Amino acid sequence: MGKFKNHILVCLGTGCRASQSEEIIRNFKTALEENDLENDVQIVGTGCFGFCEKGPVIKMVPDNTFYVLVNPEDANEIVLEHIVKGRKVERLLYVDPETKKHVSDSKHMGFYKKQIRIALRNCGFINPENIDEYIARDGYAALGSVISEMTPQEAINVVKDSELRGRGGGGFPTGLKWELTKKSNSDQKYVVCNADEGDPGAFMDRSILEGDPHSVLEAMAICGYCIGANVGVIYIRAEYPLAIQRLKIAIQQARDYGLLGNEILGSKFNFDIEIRYGAGAFVCGEETALIHSMEGLRGEPTVKPPFPAVSGYKGKPTNVNNVETFANIPPIFLKGSSWFKTIGNEKSKGTKVFALAGKVNNVGLIEVPMGTTLREVIFDIGGGIKDGKKFKAVQTGGPSGGCLTEKHLDTPIDYDNLIASGSMMGSGGMVVLDEDDCMVDVARFYLDFTVEESCGKCAPCRIGNKRMNEMLEKITMGKGEEDDIIRLKNLANVIKDTSLCGLGQTSPNPVLSTMDNFMHEYVAHVHDKKCPAKQCKALMQYSIDPNKCVGCTLCSRVCPVDAISGERKEPHKINAALCIKCGACMEKCKFGAISLS
Amino acid sequence: MEKINIIIDDKQVAVEPGTTVLHAARLIGIKIPTLCYMKLDDLNFENKPGGCRICVVEIEGRRNLAPACKTECTAGMKVKTNTIRVINSRRTVLELILSNHPAECLICAKSGDCELQSLAHKLGIREIHYQGEKSKFKGDKSPSIIREMEKCVMCRRCETACNEVQTVGVLSAINRGFNSVVAPAFEMDFDKTTCTYCGQCVAVCPTGALTERDLTWRVIEALVNPEKTVVVQTAPAVRAALGEAFGMEPGTLVTGKMTAALRKLGFNYVFDTDFAADLTIMEEGTEILDRLSKFLKGDKDVKLPILTSCCPGWVNFLEHNFPELKDVPSTAKSPQQMFGAIAKSYFADKLGIKREDMIVVSVMPCLAKKYESMRPEFSVNGDPDVNISISTRELAQLIRNANIDFNSLPDEDFDSPLGASTGAAVIFGTTGGVIEAAVRSAYELFTKKQLPKLDFEELRGLEGIRQATIDFDGTPINIGIAHGLGNARKLLDDLKAGKCSFHAIEIMACPGGCIGGGGQPYHHGNVEILRKRQSALYIEDKNKPLRKSHENPFIVQLYDEFLGKPLEHKAHELLHTHYFDKKKKIIIE
């Protein structure tokens, strides 16, 4: 980081950018210029720090002061106080929710304490648009040593020995996948990076590409060397413009440095990378669908075998790995597979990145060792449930995953445990639900997504998910019949059992897991016509407590359908048959006389 | 290679590597139901997207059920095809498909011939437990084909036929999820696309989503109109397939019964397109000889090879895809149109009626013929040479409608003079037949010698592209044959690239030729049916007293009395046409 004495690292991840972090940078520049500090202090726009809940976040180097919830107006004060006077701006420091004390170094924050960053190692540390910063952190050293010191098989053995498993969700052993592709004889092979991250709320891959694009490029080149491919393709959804822009810059810089292109690092190995855009179809994250989309065909999966390792892109052997999988590769070569295996648990090694979202205090991007428990993630890192509410469930694995409950909180997170508990790792979405969430409605929410994203090729997914969604809708509308629960369960099991690809085989998971763990909520909706979480409006009724109502008439005036009647200064009444449950009356009532039950 | 042993429903079976579970099961008498799957051996048609999930089976050691049509046998595999899990899944999936299907069986064109209906019957579905919204799509009423896509089950067979077999590329899956359907791009109507109306999509559709434009009512209206003389012509391939519609064995020739039925229906004259096929040979054969003689004399400008032009689907394909070759095919009209032109001139004159007072109905194995009959160049002052073109299936419908017990009808003969034909005309109905008929006449006219043998086995068969060299008494004539438009495309690409050494090429749009036409009784994936229809036509040819078109006495009479000589003025005016460049026709609205 050159001649500068100080560095200000400003998060330029998508979330912080949306909260004006670019303006923060501009204000910093002005403030530095005004104080003649532009040659002493460097501003670095970095990738995601992960602590999105408190964004925009900035970090002062070398003293590692971590400022949270920074506004553009704060830039001047930070320069004057922190840089000029050497005093921390206390009001922008993170406050530990328990001790209520300011914490200035992120290492001591609950959010970061239990995290180990391998895939995200450079996110928030380097300027992703400057290859030198990546190289300064040992970037491309792994590629160099692989090309110059190892045969392809030796390199594959390192990956195999690390026991790295695919981070896209399936958990297939990465080294084995490389070996299978290597063994397929062909004049042409391809390395494909699956950056079609499609789970709602998931931004693991996007953050890696935005914050550390070179780690993926380097890994793809290593993979190309191992399997005998000279073309790499990154399939990325077009909705990720920032990631695309940074990838383009990174690819060009790598070419300029001779790290991509012909005769890489003076060897005989040629490898270059191109980018393909996806239109944002969730199913295109499935590797055969992804390959079809890359070929310009309709994005729909085909039955495997043949696997892409045998016949993939353009019918040639193709190795498809997810972004996060690739991001793990360079550290495995730099630090060794035995180092990698010290992290994680027995069957799942290394770390996993999760996008922690929902009713949790610290929403953000986290990376934890495999084997960390859900409790540690939700309560230690996530800081517990928002507003002191009660934890109800956590949805892992996105729309394909399931809901895990209190009883699973101490289950160590790994591929196999999550499946055994009725959910899955998926690509790493993690949505925390509290007592206010209706589990039938949650299942319906995920089905809305799957119905939208089904490609339509196979009948159970195309029609079955639609029917499941309709049944859930019926139940949340209070129109469920006794048979519906049994029918729904049968339908969910058949869709899971008969669908062509992973999307359909997992789309019933939210239904099945909520049925397994929250059957009483289904029964309450269907049998008692009640929503225990008070979320399903159709099952709720607004009523006026005659003891609290003073007859001010405000409610009856605001009611859009004239469902409220009553004499002035007399308690009013709601006609349930007319009420459309808009809630306007309850909002307006100054006496707390209107309630929902 | 060594065979693989697998166990299906506790029975052991040894199969060749690469065999699917579906086929292995069939070998031991286990018929796993299918819906989307269809394979036509030798015709390059294999549709197995694994999409309908009806053929799912349980395989020991696998987490999910597997589609039998897509799963290859591996050594030691243990398969169960009828466990409660399999049966429940299969029925549930079928209920789902039915839940998104209009329950209009009573008034569906496909009723009684619908694979979805049969499947529901086979699985004994009595209740659909999963009801909900049904998908809605834009309808399409083209001149030949009706699309009612609410009935589509996304089997993708039409897509395979249109893209892989025919390489027409009009149909593909569009939209996502529940709204998925097979349609032309942007759900354009067929008439705005490069659709050739070959009807192969209709021929393979398991349901009523794709059917022919039904013109039976227009035929009935014509028949009851006392002011009109109604003349019918029947194409050669119809007689080899119509019987199937009345429960007869495929390949049963019903020429006589068909003629009787048409007469019972009330047609004033029952004629034969075969007559016009003989006429086609006179014109096309003469044209071949004309070009060939010029070529052999060293004329460099002559267009060779000559391409046959009987098939309207193929003509559409050429106009859309190879307009630069539009001067290459023979200018001879198709037999259907030659018949119309002669009926409304020569025969109307004989009867002393105006052409407007004559209605020509054609019965064709073909859906493209409907469109062809509507081409403006085939009408005089707005009066089309052929007024109504119906398919074999529609004729069967008319016969049933008229309470005619088809199976017990006595054989009757065609009317004279436009009902007489030779064996050469009969084989127009199969791939290779037109060119064989042309060779029989061209040989004798060219060499002035009698053919030593009439059966050209080298031109027969079902292989997609065939070639043979026929010795024209010392002059070797190279013949090419293609059926299925994908095969035609290969030959045309060669032709364009100058890699073609043929003198004459026969092209038929439909796999198998007209016997496999889009208007024929449905084959439901049984390619044997096409083979039987084919041999039926060769048998009829063999049994005909005359087997060379130029020997048809009524053809000779027609030229003497009316036309003069082939290719000359009157013949040219009535029996020849020209082709259009339709490449830029695609309009996106």
Keywords:
heterodimer, A: 597 residues, alpha/beta, Glutaredoxin, Rossmann fold, Ubiquitin-like (UB roll), five-stranded mixed β-sheet, four-stranded mixed β-sheet, 19 strands, B: 589 residues, Alpha-Beta Plaits
Protein described:
The complex is a heterodimer of chains A (597) and B (589). Chain A is of the alpha/beta class and 597 residues long. Chain A folds into five domains: 6-108, Glutaredoxin (3-Layer(aba) Sandwich), CATH 3.40.30; 131-339, NADH-ubiquinone oxidoreductase 51kDa subunit (Rossmann fold, 3-Layer(aba) Sandwich), CATH 3.40.50; 351-434, Ubiquitin-like (UB roll); 456-526, NADH-ubiquinone oxidoreductase 51kDa subunit, iron-sulphur binding domain (de novo design (two linked rop proteins)); 541-596, Alpha-Beta Plaits, CATH 3.30.70. Chain A contains 23 helices and 19 strands. A five-stranded mixed sheet of chain A has the order 12-11-15-13-14. In chain A, strand 11 and strand 12 form a beta hairpin. In chain A, helix 6 crosses helix 13 (323-335) and helix 17 runs antiparallel to helix 18 (459-476). The longest helix of chain A has 18 residues, at 459-476. Chain A is globular. By secondary structure, chain B is of the alpha/beta class. Chain B folds into three domains: 4-82, Ubiquitin-like (UB roll) (Roll), CATH 3.10.20.740; 99-213, Alpha-Beta Plaits, CATH 3.30.70; 217-295 and 354-575, Rossmann fold, CATH 3.40.50. Chain B contains 18 helices and 22 strands. Chain B has helices at residues 21-27, 84-99, 115-122, 157-165, 200-204, 216-223, 255-265, 273-296, 312-321, 335-351, 368-373, 392-401, 423-426, 433-447, 485-496, 527-543, 553-563, 569-575, and strands at 4-8, 11-15, 38-40, 45-47, 56-59, 66-67, 78-80, 140-141, 145-147, 172-174, 181-183, 210-212, 229-234, 269-272, 306-307, 358-364, 379-380, 383-384, 388-391, 465-472, 475-483, 504-508. In chain B, the strands form seven sheets. A five-stranded mixed sheet of chain B has the order 2-1-7-5-6, with helices on both faces. In chain B, strand 1 (4-8) and strand 2 (11-15) form a beta hairpin. In chain B, helix 8 (273-296) packs across helix 10 and helix 8 (273-296) packs across helix 14. The mean pLDDT of chain B is 95. The chains are: A alpha/beta (597), B alpha/beta (589). At the A-B interface, helix 17, helix 18 and helix 19 of A face helix 2 of B.
